[in-house]
């Protein structure tokens, strides 16, 4: 909970190509091709598109230039490195870095490259933005309070905390956001959009606690937040984490691979969908920091905790995802409502938790996903919070397809690939409990042994 180079595998020198053979649908192919094209382009400055506006040179005082121009001015930055900090735009301004030819360098001393101060409809495009001493949970581009910014086709790297921090109506499009000290992004507000970005190697040194806020990025207090067609890889923490009072969130058509914690994590949130993503190798020993190894049903490819839909007629949908060899598969976790639980309203200062209602895993539909596991489980756990998650909260697994591969360790084979009713059912028991009666699994001998 919120309390306080080139990246494409096969292009970057590290890592390996994701298991694209598992991809369901042409959308993933489009995403991967687009990612390769943009990544290669982002690694080197592109041919600068024509920019018509007020010229800015490396010797200029950028803030003075902005102050001397009316709002809505386009600023065309000449190639070179700029020592600038905390540029405060006027509403409607456009800042054009010439296809990554202008480099804004904070020299590990300045906190921000751009800071909104309430300015709206600002565009920041085509810059390399690096080495800013951003405070924790803050971005080198700080647009929490300025609505309707567009942040596109920048390379935002090696800043102390977050790459970008965004609020109402901000669109973050086709950026490379990598090697930042805490996380790639921090998002809040209404109507935000992240699309076509590469978010990688953030918190790579695991200096910031994964359980607090670190990794690919976190959203909190958002409404109608959309995160689609992004490539989220090798971050030290959860890949995509929406925590606390998010409602109507859409997470779709992303590739989320090899992050330390959960791949996609929805916590204390309401009324969303997680669809058509490739989620692979998250929370595993091969991930940065060798995985969190939280055991039980944590560090899953897709993980809900204290989250669901407020209406039985409009469930929280997890559908069409390909979930491959994560520490656990797709998991639903109901924690008790106490200070450290899913909805800690019982102690002073926490009344903001559970803004839209009880923080319950309810009205969740997990359907038509392809799940491959060699360890861990897919299913639900009540974590000391009662059995209603299994019996009366309208949570269902329907039509999912499983490939379950026993893994031998110390002469024993793992079991417990499915979790329900405080146990590890066999496939037959899982179906008798009403799960995946139209689903399928591969054939192998279910060996009942002590779970690791």
Provide keyphrases for this structure.
452 residues, mainly beta, 13-stranded parallel β-sheet, 5 helices, 32% strand
In summary, what is this structure?
The chain is mainly beta and 452 residues long. It has five helices and 39 strands.
Uncertain runs with pLDDT below 50, 5 residues or more? 1-42, 410-414, 445-452
Helix content range: under 10%
| Molecular shape | elongated
Gyration radius, rounded: 22 Å
Structural class by sheet pairing and helices? mainly beta
Strand order in space, largest sheet = 1-2-4-7-10-13-16-19-22-25-28-31-34
Kindly state the mean pLDDT as a whole number?
A: 85
Span from first to last CA? 28 Å
Q: How does the major sheet shape up?
A: 13 strands, parallel
Total DSSP E strands: 39
Describe this structure in words.
The model is unreliable at 1-42, 410-414 and 445-452 (pLDDT under 50). The protein is mainly beta and 452 residues long. The chain has five helices and 39 strands. Strands 1-2-4-7-10-13-16-19-22-25-28-31-34 form a 13-stranded parallel sheet. A 13-stranded parallel sheet has the order 3-5-8-11-14-17-20-23-26-29-32-35-39, with helices on one face. α2 links the parallel β1 (54-56) and β2 (74-77).
């Amino acid at each position: 909970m919120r309390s306080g180079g080139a990246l494409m595998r096969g292009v970057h020198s590290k890592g390996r190509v994701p298991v694209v053979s598992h991809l369901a649908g042409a959308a993933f192919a489009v995403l991967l091709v687009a990612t390769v094209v943009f990544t290669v382009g982002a690694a080197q400055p592109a041919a600068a598109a024509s920019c018509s506006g007020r010229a800015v040179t490396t010797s200029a005082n950028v803030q003075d230039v902005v102050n001397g121009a009316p709002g809505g001015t386009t600023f065309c930055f000449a190639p070179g490195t700029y020592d600038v900090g905390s540029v405060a735009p006027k509403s409607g301004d456009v800042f054009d870095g010439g296809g990554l030819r202008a480099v804004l360098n904070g020299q590990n001393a300045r906190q921000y490259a751009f800071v909104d101060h309430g300015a709206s409809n600002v565009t920041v495009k085509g810059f390399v933005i690096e080495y800013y001493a951003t405070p924790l949970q803050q971005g080198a581009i700080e647009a929490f309070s300025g609505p309707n910014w567009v942040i596109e086709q920048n390379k935002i790297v090696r800043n102390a905390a977050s790459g970008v921090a965004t609020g109402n109506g901000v669109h973050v499009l086709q950026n490379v956001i990598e090697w930042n000290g805490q996380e790639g992004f921090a998002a809040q507000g209404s109507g935000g959009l992240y699309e076509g970005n590469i978010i990688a190697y953030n918190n790579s040194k695991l200096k910031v606690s994964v359980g607090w806020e670190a990794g690919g990025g976190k959203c909190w207090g958002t409404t109608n937040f959309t995160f689609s067609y992004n490539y989220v890889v090798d971050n030290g923490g959860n890949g995509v984490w929406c925590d606390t009072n998010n409602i109507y969130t859409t997470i779709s058509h992303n590739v989320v691979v090899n992050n330390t914690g959960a791949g996609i994590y929805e916590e204390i949130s309401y009324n969303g969908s997680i669809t058509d993503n490739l989620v692979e190798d998250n929370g595993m020993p091969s991930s940065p920091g060798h995985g969190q190894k939280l055991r039980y049903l944590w560090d899953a490819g897709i993980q809900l905790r204290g989250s669901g839909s407020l209406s039985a007629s409009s469930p929280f949908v997890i559908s069409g995802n390909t979930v491959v060899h994560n520490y656990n598969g797709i998991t639903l976790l109901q924690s008790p409502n106490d200070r450290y639980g899913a909805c800690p309203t019982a102690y002073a200062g926490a009344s903001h938790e559970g803004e839209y209602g009880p923080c319950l895993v309810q009205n969740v539909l997990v359907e038509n996903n392809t799940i491959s596991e060699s360890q861990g489980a897919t299913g639900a756990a009540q974590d000391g919070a009662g059995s209603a998650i299994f019996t009366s909260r309208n949570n269902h697994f329907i039509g999912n397809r499983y490939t379950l591969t026993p893994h031998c360790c110390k002469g024993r084979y793992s079991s417990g690939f499915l979790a329900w009713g405080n146990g590890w059912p066999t496939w037959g028991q899982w179906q008798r409990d009403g799960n995946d009666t139209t689903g399928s699994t591969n054939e192998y001998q279910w060996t009942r042994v002590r779970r690791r």
